[in-house]
Amino acid sequence: MQGAYILATGSAVPDSTISNHQISQFVETSDQWIVTRTGIKERRLLTGYNQSVIDLAVIASKRALQKIDMNPHDIDLIILATSSPNDLFGSASQVQAKIQAVNAVAFDLTAACSGFVLSLVTATQFIQNGTYSTVLIIGADVLSKWTNWNDRGTCILFGDGAGAVILQACPYLENAILGFNLNTNGQYSNQLSISYKEDKLVNLNLPIMQGSFDYITMNGKEVYKFAVSQVPLSILKCLNNLNISIDNIDWLLLHQANERILTAIADKLSIDLRKVISNVSKYGNTSAASIPLALDEALYQNKIKKNDLIIISGFGAGLTWGTVIVKWIY
Ligand code: COA
């Protein structure tokens, strides 16, 4: 079995920002309410005609490639974690074409805010079993396109962005993806969803129903309780399996949903808040993008050092949640 490690990261966010104050001009809310309940101050929104998740994913990917001067022809596999593709058949192939990764097979992985964690685990399997050597994993979402901007319960939370990592087979058989724990409870899928609604009957002798996707709907309180109760359990299971003590952890990198959730999970695990990586105040919840975006920023700020142990956990619609423990080895 060959090991896997993260070799490079990149990220991209749109230029346009929307502040809490701006949101308070079209729904009844306030900067104070949003900051107190979520820690979010502003988010980035993809604006302009014909702009899609692909544009952000391509920029993030190119930035990761440029950092290590890698030829895109060297990529074997591209996994695009997104729940906001611009083609229901998948968007990864368009990213493949745009970055000219001509030798890569490419597919989308839909797992909402856990999409990056599931993609990282999936990519690791391909590397560890020796099938592929170099995988580009992108978490990218433009949930602004699926947000009901009249719903103050959800429109305050989400922002657009993309983050990319290049995962590669390790030299010298070292392995940086130490272990993982993944979970799904589909009984609660209705707590957070962008559901398909049928509203049209096409009568071709057979009654075929057609429709379209709705806006994001969410039971905020239940999702909050789910995250704060289940994510620490996933982390502890993962650490126990690896025989790693929580005291040896250097960084807690959670899906950036809400500052209160990050703090509550850290408190439950008795992790010092200085070890919690957070940029949710600037970008809001960017779904599958949030973890690689925060990782890229933390590396840029020189926070993460060689041999640091990082807990990476994602959680969200599905409901699906999971943890990967990573050792930073470069
Ligand atoms: N501005 C002002 N008031 C708001 C509001 C807003 N944006 N949204 C809701 N309210 C009101 C409600 O109408 C309610 O009023 P009432 O008491 O008169 O009925 C009150 O504030 C409390 O609403 P509630 O929904 O109970 O608030 P909350 O404390 O649960 O906070 C969330 C709401 C969404 C911030 C919180 O539930 C949360 O963060 N949940 C997790 C969401 C999440 O992270 N989802 C993605 C996971 S991947």
Q: What does this protein structure show overall?
A:
The longest helix is centred in the last third of the chain and has 23 residues, at 220-242. It is globular, with a radius of gyration of 19 Å. 29% of the residues lie in helices and 29% in strands. Helix 4 links the parallel strand 4 and strand 5 (105-109). With 330 residues, the protein is an alpha+beta fold. Helix 3 (53-67) packs across helix 4 (92-98) and helix 6 (220-242) runs parallel beside helix 7 (259-268). It has two domains: 3-174, Thiolase/Chalcone synthase (Peroxisomal Thiolase, Chain A, domain 1, 3-Layer(aba) Sandwich); 177-186 and 217-327, Thiolase/Chalcone synthase (Peroxisomal Thiolase, Chain A, domain 1, 3-Layer(aba) Sandwich). A five-stranded mixed β-sheet has the order 1-7-6-4-5, with helices on both faces. Strands 8-15-14-13 form a four-stranded mixed β-sheet, with helices on both faces. The chain starts with a strand and ends with a strand. Bound molecules: coenzyme A.
Number of helices: 9
Q: What percent of the residues sit in helical stretches (DSSP H or I)?
A: 25-40%
Low-confidence stretches: none
Name the shape in a single word: globular
Q: What's the architecture of the largest domain in CATH terms?
A: 3-Layer(aba) Sandwich
Text of the CATH class of the largest domain:
Alpha Beta
Spatial arrangement of strands, main beta sheet: 1-7-6-4-5
- Here the CATH topology of the largest domain equals Peroxisomal Thiolase, Chain A, domain 1
| Beta-strand content bin | 25-35%
Find the count of extended strands (DSSP E, 2+ residues). Answer: 15
Mean model confidence by pLDDT:
96
Largest sheet properties: 5 strands, mixed
Any idea how many domains? 2
Provide the CATH superfamily of the largest domain: Thiolase/Chalcone synthase
- Structural category is alpha+beta
Order of helices and strands: EEHHEHEHEHEEEEEEEHEHHHEE
Radius of gyration: 19 Å
Ligand roster: coenzyme A
How far is it from the N-terminal to the C-terminal residue, by CA?
20 Å
